[in-house]
Every structure is written in C-alpha cells, then in structure tokens.
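Protocol step 6 of 9: fold each sequence in the batch and record its structure tokens directly after the sequence line. For illustration, a two-sequence batch is reproduced in full.

Sequence one:
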Amino acid sequence: MRERNALLASSMSLFMLGSMLTACSPDASPAADGGNNSASSGKQKKITISVYYPTPDLVEKRALEDDKIRRFTEKYPNVEIVKSDWQYDPNQIGIKMGANEAPTLFNTYATEGKFLAEKGWAADITNLFNAYEFKDQMNPILQQQFVIGGKIYGITQQGYVTGTIVNKKMLEDKKIAVPPLDWTWDDMYNTAKAAADPAKGISGIAPMGKGNEAGWNWTNFLFEAGGDIQKVEGGKVTALFHSEAGVKALQFYRSLAWEAKAIPKDWALGWGDAVGAFAQSRTAMVIAGPDGPIDQALNQGGMKPADVIFYPMPAAAKGGKHTGVLGGDYLVINPKATQEEQEAAFRYATFDYFSDKGLASIEASIQQRKKDSKYFVPPVIEYFTSDSAYGKKVKAVYDKYDNVYPYSPDITKYLDGKPEAQFNTQDYYATITSVVQDVFSRKDADPKAVLDAAAKLVQEKYYNSIKVK
C-alpha cells in the first residue's frame, strides 16, 4: 500500500567502520556525527549513487529532498547524487534488478522485508546499522520489520497503524453523534449508515475495492475479529484467513454494503480514489494510515483540523482490541552496489536523522506550509521513539506552530499494530481483493464459501511451495 517494525544482533567496531568509509571520510571518526562526517580530502574516490526521489505531485517533499541533496553533496563533494523517479513496485523489482536498473537507494514498504531479503534484492546493512551512533534511538517497532534472520535489510522512515479517518463536520452537519475513540463495529456501522445519502452520491464509509489495497483494508477487520492471515509451523505455511474470524469480518463488510447501504455505489475505489472521495466530503470515513488522507482533506479539501479525526480501527465488540495493520515506509540499499556506494547510500539515508539540520528541515517545511496557508501533517509513528531526546525536540518544534495537525493525545493508547504476513503478502492481498469485490457485487455471496475458495487458491498456488528453515 502506499502508505503504506529487539533491535539487532551482530556488530562491528567503530574502528572497522571508519576504515570501511575511506571513500567518504578518511580522516574523521564515524561516531563524530552519527556516521555523517565531513569530507576532508580532495583525493577521494568519486562515487555516484541513485536515490529515491518523491513523485511530482509531492512538491514540498521534492523541495526538501533537493535541499538535502545540496547539503549532502556540499559535505561529501566526491559523491554525485542522481535522482531516481522509480517508485517501488513488487511487480517490477525483479525486472529492475535483472537489468541493473534499480536505484542504489530505493523506497519500499513494510510487507517487503522478507521478500527482498530472500530474493537477494536488499543489501545486508547489519554492520553499517550497528555502527550507527543513533541506532538505539531508532523506533524498534518499525525497524524490526526489516530484521530478517537476525540481519538488517532496511532503514525505517516512518510508520503507521491503520485506522479510520472520520469527517467530524459531516457528522455534525447531519446531527449524527460523533462516536468515541473507543468505538466498535456497531458504532462504525451505525455512523456509516446514518451518514450515507446514496441519492446524493454520499457514502458513509468508502472501503477500498480495487487494487491490493482492498485486501489490505479488509485485513484490519480480520485482525480485529481475532483472526490471522497465516501460520508458520513445522517448516510449512498454512492459510488461516478463512477461519470463523475471517467469516465474521466478511459478513461485516457485506452488512455495510447491502444492509446499511453505506458504501459508494461505485465501490471499485483504489487508495487514491477513496482518499480523494474523503477529501471532497463524498464519504464520511476512509480506512488508511492517517497522514495522507488528512493532508489531502486539509490542504486540498479545505477542511480544518477540527473537522477531521483520526480514529483507531473499531474493536469487533466493546472491550476488544483496536487492531490495525502495522505498516510503514522504508529505504533499502541495492545489494549490487559497490561497498563504497552502499556506505554512501546509508549515509544519505540517515543524513538528517537525529540532527539539528533535520529539525531545521522539519521547521522550514512547517513554516513554508504556513506561508502557503497549508497544514503540516506529521507521521503518526516516526523513525525515532517519542520519548527519545530527539523525539522531545521534534515535539517542541511541532508545538510552536498552529498549522501542525494535532492527533488526539489519547490515540496512542488505543492503537494496536499487528505486522503483516511474513510470506506472499501482496499475493494474499490481491486474492482478498477478489473476495471483497465478490461480496460487494453479489448480495447472495456466501462469505464462508468465497473465503474457503480463496484460502485454497493461496495455499496451493503460493504457500505449498514455501519451505521455512
């Protein structure tokens, strides 16, 4: 998904890392600034690395990245940065690697750690990470997602626990009671039913209905019902999502569609479609990580922070857990890059982490958005821990500005993140998308029958060929 975590064994001495990093800084200790030391020799080997670059629609993020590139190359003049416009796609990564066209540093998401590691498409950065000065302040919940077999294959950027973003103003305008944060499936059902106005093209909730994100959306309800995607036991992977919990979750989807009539008439919405509908006040609720939908609602939809609330996923019943899919954004280093290129890529990835420049960059982005009459929406889970020294500095910056979106102070006590499946996650999501489409298009679809068929397909096509060591 777009939006789309202990820490770590195995280490090497700082002395060894210093000797490895001669291409970037032969005279300085890598511990001096977290591995981001100044270059001091004009005889350094020239290195070229290609890096992930935000898409054209992310104007502010591109501006920040341009500034980062400028500052990095000033500090490391021997490194040339090439901007890559390739955005990670699990269906393209094999082709990119085979053709030697994958960037040195590319973006990916939480589901892909095991897949990339096992395919040999992510560099083992264990030594680089363990010698990193600030490794102990990295958010372990996020970073753990890219620890595979005790080795580290990625660097966390930010994360989320999937929740529900609610248009509070829509509810209040229709005199619908705003549900509590500690809400349930019944609360979601009743709110969605009351907010829907099919004659005017208004839905109460817009579950994603196409692309793998449809399967991702539904999986939250599977988790809330107490179910799971798969189990790994005795060297085998077995499908579990067609359990009683899965049937219960799919029955809830069917009730939203056919009894409450709360979903869009044209329900085949991908992430962008559903989030766009929310920003345009054509639906009262959307299921996602919060920052993207809230950013669009405030900065494109003209809403105010008080109009939009990020909720945890609803518990299946009162007193239950508000479990949502735990996801995030990561950076991975190309294993085909040379040792010097990998080291430079690691430095670039962590260049602004835990630094005053990083704080200044955040503040500059907030200030620019204020000048543009826009809001700044921070990640709900950041790469650092909130109680770290750096986390407190970032919070102090956020607190200075009235255009920083404030999450409810109570939200964290309800968020219950559950990692995605270890094996064939995207294949599972694609299969569940077909299940969701079947239930949304056929009133008489039998949840148990369609889930049993989907589990059989996933088991035979994907899981039976997996041998877990």
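Sequence two, same batch, same settings:
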Amino acid sequence: MHYFLGIDVGTYSSKGVLTDESGKVVSRAVTHHGMENPEPGYYEQDADKVWWNDFCILSKMLLQQSGVEPEKIACVGGSTLGADCLPVDKDGHPLRKAILYGIDARCVEEMEYLSQYYGTEKVKKLFGRPICSGDVSAKILWIKNHEPEVYRRTHKFLTGSSYLTFKLTGKYVIDTFLGMASFRPLYYPDGSIHKEMCKPICMPEQLAEGMPVTHICGTVTKQAAKETGLKEGTPVITGTGDSAAEAISVGVLAPGDLMVQFGSSLFFYCCADRLIQDERVRGNPFLIPETYSVAAGTNNGGTLQKWYLEQLFSECLEKEKTAGLNAYEEMVKGISEISPGSDGLITLPYFAGERTPLNDPDARGMIVGLSLSHTKRHLYRSALEGIGYSVAQHIDIFRENGLPVKRIAAAGGGTKNAVWMQMVADIAGVSLETPKEDIGAAYGDALMAAIGVGFYQGFSDLRQVIQKKCIYKPDLERHELYKPFRKLFDELYRCNQEILHSLSKHNK
C-alpha cells in the first residue's frame, strides 16, 4: 500500500492528511497559528516559525498517528496562502516576514504607479482587470520602494508554496497557474519569465521557475527528512495556493464547476472552457490542463465572524472555556428563527476592505436599518447574509460571462455552519454541496501528489474518488424574500462609497 501526504498552511491554521490508494484519509492533523497586523492594512506571517514549522509538526504527527512508515509515502504535495510575497537571500533565508495575500493593502501607491506605467488599455490586456492588492508584483515593488536593503539582498521573491517546496527540495519553483494568477504580468502561461515585464518591478533572475502543479520538482533532502520525519528522496510535487488545492479537493474538475471556499476570507474558483476577462474578477489558465479559471475573493468570512464572536458574544467564548461547547455553534443558535433580511437589517461586510467584485481596499463595513427591536443575533445573521449577498454577486458575474453555474461546491471551515450554508443556497438560488472529506486543501494536495507519481492518470480520475456529504437545496420562497434585500445591498455600497473612503482615512 502506498500513501500520499498533503499539507496546507492557511491564515490561522495548518492542516495535513495522509491518503491511501483509494483516496481515503487514513490520518489527519491540525495545528494553529496567528497572523500579525503590525499596522492598519498590513498582514504578515513568519515563513519559518509559521509555514515551515507547521509543516514539520504536521508531517511528524501524521506519521506517528497513522503508524505509516516514511518509506511508504509515495509523494508529497503542499499548499499555502495564495498570493504572498516572501523575499529570501541566496541561502533561502527569509529577509523579512511574508507579506500576505490580498488582505494586505499596503501597496496602494504601487498599484497606482503600475496602473499609470502600463496605461489603462495595457493593464486590461495584461491583468484582465484593475491591478489589485492580491498582485504580488505590487508587493515586490513596495519592498523595492520602502525596504531597498531587503530588495538589494533578495535572491528570490517567493510565494508560500514556493517556500515550502524549497525547504523540502532545495528547488525554487512555482506552479504555472499561480505564476499567472498571482504574479501578473511576470510569467507567461508556460511558466517562463516575461523578462520585459519585469523591468519596473524586479530582475527576472529573482523569480522562481514555473512548473505544472503536479510536476515532480525534486525530492526530500537529507536536512528536510530530518526535520519532517519523511524519507530522504521522497518525490515532491510543485504544489500551489490553498484555494486552488481546495477547489480540487471538492471536485472543481471541469467547466461549470464552482467552488466557494468559506475560510478566514472567501475565495471563488469557477472552472471555464475559455479565458474570461472581466475587470471585477480574475481570469487565468487553470491548473487543470486545457481549462481556465475565473477567480475571485472577498476579505470577509471567518475573520469577520471571529470579530463578532470576540466583540458581541463573549459569553459563547466563556461557555467554550468552562463547558467545552463550541463557541461558534453557540453563537449561531437562534438566528434561524429570524426571518430572511434580518427584520430589515443589512450589513456591508467590508470590515477589512474588499477584494472582488469591488476591488476597493478602502471599503468599510456598514450596518443599516438598526432599530430598538434588533438584537445582537440580528446583527450576526445580517453579517452572514451580507457575505451571502456577496456570493450571489459573484455568481451573477460568472453567468453574465456565459458560465452556467448550477451548483456550489463549498469548502472550508464555514461549511460546518449548516444554518449559514442553507442561507447562502437560499440567497443565491443555487444548490450548495459539501464534501465528505472536509479537511480541504490538504486533501487536494494529497490527490495531486498521487497524480504526480502516476497513481491517477489525471484530474478526471478524481471524480471517482471525491464524495459528497450534504446537499443544501435552495428554498425558492425564501429566495424570493431575499431579492429586495439583495438589491438594497448592491445599492448601499454604490451610494456610500465616498463616505466609506473618507471614514477609512480615520481608521487606526
């Protein structure tokens, strides 16, 4: 029997699995970590203390728990937060903490500079939409402008999965999909570096080599074997970002499949048969050969719920400490009894700015329609509905571009909230499915590792492996009740954009 190891590093936790030849998870493990917020709009993590340390912890835990001998691990796959920027020196040592994905909005001036440098028409051609805070090229330019000594010493600008692969194999690689999706316009679709486009940003030699996600890019080194418990010489695939790996884990394998990742933030992948260019979202070649993806992401999901838990539902945290009850399960109690639209309450959930479809880091949250009859559970339900309205906005965009979204394949920790999942299905008017194996991206990593060594012939084989757990069918009556609130939700941002921008300048 052969086994496949998959490990994913997320915003607040890292997860790992071992799968057998049938795709069954034989061991799983989770470890938690933090995210640093040193200044407003700045979000960072320590690549060694968080990313690599978590990988080593989980690898050893999985081997110990399962009793699987290291030599039985046929291949390793890894993923991390998607569009991160980590400069490393010639020995691969991080020169600063990693600047995280689109939630980090420090590079607004660099975004504006690149937009002017290329010009509006060329930006549309190169990016397919306005330059956003998720573009690593703008993050690299921020380091060049604000930390010139770090920039001067940088041997490679990596993203999270590239760093894990380097620590495992000593190779600097990035999957071709992530290179196109997050490092625009620095890579060609085949993974080669677009030298001309590098000129205002970095030197071509400062970028990792592009390879397909399931390519065996190297093997576990002697030092990595010592730190992870794996066997020296174990094959390692290129790996990818967490959201793409999670899309694979829930069965986004062909055009029309849509994943919504309910994590700390929300991320969307819709598989397409052609390149979609719409400035509200991001179109790229997908990691599955001969397909494309439409990607999108919000800043507000689990992170926003965590804020509500800490600020309004401290008694739920206390119950978790004293009685062992799950704080989030306690917080959701009673909200299903509130009618759709939260009795006339709407929340714009842009507490951390917003990525798609707004692409506005200066957007801010709003709670509109408050009356003395509203309770904190109304506030919480309204926040969940606000995120649901955002999901529906994205589905509308996909359909406007001719993508027939018929189901949502849901992933991430948010899928444990059955009330919320039904709410999203009702708002969007689309069936929502959750997978049997719900550990997410780590499962996708293991499945792709199996493809990498030829155990599965390709991605299509995974349809026989990935199984569904729950199907939430939309209640059409509730869907109709939500329609006027959804319309008001869309109008609230448009009508208050300037006010929100003014207020954002006063945020500490």
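Proceed to step 7 once all outputs are recorded. Observation for sequence two: The two ends are 55 Å apart (CA to CA).
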